[in-house]
Each structure stands twice: as C-alpha cells, then as structure tokens.
Amino acid sequence: MSKIVINSCQPLSGEVNISGSKNAALPVLAATILVDGKSILENIPSLSDIDYMCEILSVLDCLAVRRSDGTIEIDSTSSKPHSVPYELTGKLRASFLITGPLLARYGRARVALPGGCSIGTRPVDLHLKGLAALGGEYFISDGYVDIKSTKLKGTRVCLDFPSVGATQNIMMAATLAEGETTIENCASEPEITDLADFLISCGAHISGAGTDTITVSGVKRLKPTSYSIISDRIEAGTFMLAALATHGSIRIKNINLAHLSAVTAKLAEIGVIAEPIQNGVVVNGNCQKKATDIKTMPFPGFPTDMQSQIAAALCCAEGTSVITETIFENRFMYVPELIRMNADIKVEGRTAVITGTDSLIGAEVSATDLRAGAALVIAGLCARGKTVINNAEYIKRGYYNLDSKLSSLGAVICYEE
Ligand code: UD1
What we know:
Layout (H helix, E strand, L loop, with lengths): L2 E4 L6 E5 L4 H10 L6 E5 L5 H12 L3 E4 L5 E4 L10 H4 L9 H8 L1 E5 L12 H9 L3 E5 L2 E5 L7 E3 L5 H11 L5 E5 L5 H12 L3 E3 L5 E5 L8 E3 L4 H13 L3 E5 L7 H10 L2 E5 L2 E5 L8 E3 L11 H8 L5 E5 L10 H5 L4 E5 L2 E5 L8 E3 L3 H13 L4 E4 L2 H6 L3 H6 L5 E4 L1
Helix pairs in contact: 1-2, 1-7, 4-6, 5-6, 6-7, 8-10, 8-12, 10-12
C-alpha cells in the first residue's frame, strides 16, 4: 500500500505546469478503436488509469506504443472486438467507453460491466439506452454486456440526465452510423468538446459539442490523425485550492481558464483572486477567507470532481459553508477522515455543513477515492504536524507527479511505498 506523507504547513509559492487531462484522454483513447489506422495522441498524462485503458486496447489488438514525451501511438488497423474481462474493466469505469466504438466499427461488443465504485453505483443504463436507440441489441449475462447490430442507424436520443460517459459513448457510436443522430440533454463538459474535436479531426461530422444538443452525421470511415489532449481542469483547480488553503501564491500554467469559471467564481466569493495570465492564472491565497455555499452541477456548474477539494479548503474559512452534492450519491466518504484532522463537518444526506476552525491538525487518514485523496492532500498541506495518507494509489490514478509538483512549490511531501 502506497502512502503520502506531508509535513508542511507553509504557503505554497512558485509556478506549476498542469498535465494533460485524464478524463479527456480516456474517451479519446477509446475512440481510436473507430479509426482505421494509427492515431497519434499528445499531452497524455502518465497515470495508471491511462495504462489500464491501454491494456484494454491491447486486448482488442490495438497496438499502443507509449513514449516518454507524453505521446501515445495507437494502431487500430488490425483491431478485433474480443471480449474484455472484468479483471480489466473493473479497474476503471471509463472502460465502458469502448462499447460504442466497438459496436460502430464491428457491429458487436462484449464488455464486462465495470461495476460500482466508492462514490456511487454508477449505472450504465443511459449508455445502453442510447446505443439501443441507434440499433444495438443488447443482453446482459454473467456480468457481461453483449451488444450487436447489423448496421447502426442515426436517430434522436434524449438523455434522462446529461451523463458525460453516455454522451461520449453515443457520440462515438453515431460517427459511423447511417444518417443523422441528435443527442439532446447531452453533457457539455470540456472533455466532450475535446472528444468531438478529436473525432472531427478524424473526419467525423459533429456539431453542437459544448452545448446541450449534439448532432452527428455518420461517415463511412474515420481516418488517422495526430491530436493533442486538453489540459486537466481538475488538476488545475486542485492546485488553486491548495494555494487558497495554504495562504500561498502560485502561478498555474498550461490551463484553459474558461474551463474553470465555476471554480474561479467560488474563489472570488471566498475572497481569493484568480488573476488570468497568458495560458494560465495566478492564485493568491494570502487573505482572509470567507465561507461559501456550493452545489455540484453538470458543466458549466461547479464540478463534482472538485467538491471534496473545496470542502478541505473551506475547513479553515471564517463562518459556515454548505456543500450540496447532486451528481453522485456517495461523495462525502472523505468527511470522517477530515474530522480526524480537526475539521468541523456534519453530513446529512447529500449536504455537508462545514464550520471553519482555526487550524487542521495532521493525522493518519485514508483516501477512499481519487478526489477524496486530493482533498486530504490539501488538508495535509495546511495542517499543523504530520499527515499520512493511506491508499495513495488512488491519487496516482489522477495526478501526475503530485509529490514533485507540490515539492517544487515548497511543500514537504513524499510518497512512501
Ligand atoms: C465522468 C468523469 C468523472 C466525473 C463525472 C461527472 C471520466 C472518466 N469520469 O464520469 O470524473 O465525476 O463525469 O462530471 O470522465 N448515470 C446514470 N446512468 C448512466 C450514466 C450515468 O444514472 O448510464 C448517473 C451516474 O450514476 C451519476 C450521474 O449520472 O450519478 C453522472 O454520471 P456521468 O456524467 O455519466 O459520469 P461519468 O461519465 O461516469
């Protein structure tokens, strides 16, 4: 079991570069199954979730070659719709994103259901309903989804909820369907737009990505391309909150601030100014922090993936903050761990009430998921004394070199295996 040890409690200062987005890279990796040839993807973060997705692609005979400069080449020329077992799909939820591309390119997919995870049950009903509307016939047995179609046909799909994954799966499948597909009430996250941009650069006809209705006109084939993934807005937001919590001042480079409007709006309410600079932002957290209320929402609302980090940062703000989680049913698992560090938080249902305290105190705690782990890192960076975070593997799934990036900003932090 890997741990993170933090013994810091000083303002962060300096400059940090944000890596490529994990959540944008995973669907684009899945989309390479649609491409007849070799895709070259740049700005791919070196993370375990990316490794798992590459393992899944190799089961499908897509040849993935990873280079040290953050490039991955994936040759899908000889790919096959082999069955993908639970031992791989169970490692990451995004594995289910291969279903739409396999169905579109080969007319069939057999993929083990990824199962739930610690933040919620995370069903895939919306993915399956959308693929069925395009003509995929599916049945579920022995924990696998088998889905088949002689030819997908464009149609109108209206999602019950703007699910990011379902929008991505349906959009990918529709690129090779016959005729036009509209996806209504779809997700509009930057990762959706990035996937659409990748597909468009392969010759797909897609409009409306980034709005609540996407239209896809099917084409016969997608051609190989080179594509650079967007930077990770959640990593960037995590560093912003680390600056806030430690009263630090940091320059965060290689970001698109437009992807972080909901986060910068909340920083302003708390009293922290995020000043835009070219290709980045300067966050100065050396000020009095006020409590605020937050409700997680689909983009452009406040991201659920930043909920735990802002909760940690608000533990020492003046007054009482109320956080409401509307996306996942079980996303307050980190709260008992923060309470072990002297936080004053009460959870009732989907709401957490945080009363600011003078100071957090270091303790041994455990990460329950990736973003919970990030929240504990933020808490550890501003706590008095030593913090040990168990289950640090979770953090490695989503933050490239978090320890060395924070060390370069003056934190005393390291991984221990
Ligand atoms: C993606 C992100 C994740 C982020 C989430 C919400 C990736 C790899 N992961 O996850 O980090 O927290 O978006 O921004 O990009 N739902 C259903 N049925 C479905 C699909 C989803 O009920 O078929 C529900 C989920 O249980 C959840 C809500 O819809 O309550 C949102 O899920 P969704 O937007 O699909 O999240 P993911 O794509 O899994």
